[in-house]
């Protein structure tokens, strides 16, 4: 294929990497179609809404720019009211929810949600996507996979074994999260907006109501993240068992004087990139297949952004090389 005729591309995954890649390619007049298994865009920049309108940023907690490219993007998002500063210098969060920037980027893109890709089939220049729901999507000139590395490896192994093998070198740690809500007088009043306790089980505690653009009245909402070691030990427990065990660990740290009015656990199996590939993305121009995500560069929101942009550039280079 060697980049020839890349005009219609599928992107698997609507996290930041996939949506940024799709945005850049759409600007270049490539026909891009994003396929996402969940109900909306965001990936681990996730916000969960519960009973009574309670909202929790239960995935990525904030973002910070280290390079000029992501810094410029954050500035643009801030001017658009999509992010704002929170706490420590340089720490930014989505407004009114963590997924706001990704949702805004995806708003003008072709996005199929609640659609799980089970296989990539076909041949270079004529790829189709088989879905768990029984649909066949395509044909596509190229396919970019931006799912977590283990899922990317599974999809690519039958059609691009070398890319699949490379993706298999990335390593993750899991993270178990707990979303809590308490009556206003049921917690210690001196809780900081966010803290990293020196604790065997608890890695992070944040008060969501302290973030800009969130409701600060009503129940006090907390997001708790467990440490990697504790998360590994409890990963295969039921959500109820995870909830109860994590609540028992965190209650003394937050000065809880009673039971929460809301307590739900979330299992992030592929949460923290411990061993990235050290390359911005994977791309095979002969096949028209590529992959990317934070697992390429490191466990930060910025890494996902940089990888998505690198994927788009790889496609552009392949097209220019074929012209």
From TrEMBL:
GO terms for molecular function: oxidoreductase activity. It comes from the Bacteria. Residues 96-315 form the Amine oxidase domain. Pfam families: Amino_oxidase, NAD_binding_8. InterPro entries: Amino_oxidase, FAD/NAD-bd_sf. PANTHER family: FAD/NAD(P)-BINDING OXIDOREDUCTASE FAMILY PROTEIN, FAD_NAD(P)-BINDING OXIDOREDUCTASE FAMILY PROTEIN. This is Amine oxidase domain-containing protein. The lineage of its organism: Bacteria, Pseudomonadati, Pseudomonadota, Alphaproteobacteria, Hyphomicrobiales.
């Amino acid at each position: 294929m060697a980049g020839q005729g890349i005009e219609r591309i599928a992107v698997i995954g609507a996290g930041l990497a996939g949506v940024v890649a799709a945005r850049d390619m759409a600007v270049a007049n490539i026909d891009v179609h994003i396929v996402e298994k969940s109900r909306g865009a965001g990936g681990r920049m996730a916000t969960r809404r519960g009973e009574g309108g309670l909202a929790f940023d239960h995935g990525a907690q904030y973002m910070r720019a280290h390079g000029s490219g992501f810094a410029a993007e954050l500035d643009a998002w801030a001017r658009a009211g999509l992010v704002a500063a929170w706490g420590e210098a340089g720490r930014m969060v989505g407004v009114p929810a963590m997924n706001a920037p990704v949702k805004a980027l995806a708003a003008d893109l072709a996005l199929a949600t609640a659609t799980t890709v089970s296989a990539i089939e076909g041949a270079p220049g004529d790829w189709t996507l088989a879905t768990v729901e029984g649909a066949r999507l395509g044909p596509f000139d190229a396919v970019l996979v931006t799912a977590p590395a283990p899922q990317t490896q599974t999809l690519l192994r039958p059609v691009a074994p070398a890319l699949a093998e490379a993706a298999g070198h990335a390593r993750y740690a899991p993270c178990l999260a707990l979303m809590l809500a308490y009556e206003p007088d049921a917690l210690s009043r001196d809780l900081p907006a966010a803290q990293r306790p020196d604790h065997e089980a608890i890695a992070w505690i944040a008060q969501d109501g302290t973030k800009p653009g969130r409701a600060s009245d009503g129940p006090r909402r907390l997001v708790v993240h467990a440490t990697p070691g504790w998360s590994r030990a409890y990963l295969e427990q039921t959500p109820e068992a995870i909830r109860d065990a994590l609540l028992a660990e965190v209650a003394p740290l937050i000065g809880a004087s009673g039971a929460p009015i809301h307590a739900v656990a979330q299992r992030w199996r592929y949460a923290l990139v411990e061993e990235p590939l050290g390359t911005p993305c994977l791309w095979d121009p002969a096949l028209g297949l590529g992959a990317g995500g934070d697992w390429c560069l490191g466990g930060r929101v910025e890494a996902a952004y940089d990888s998505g942009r690198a994927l788009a550039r790889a496609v552009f280079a392949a097209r220019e090389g074929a012209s």
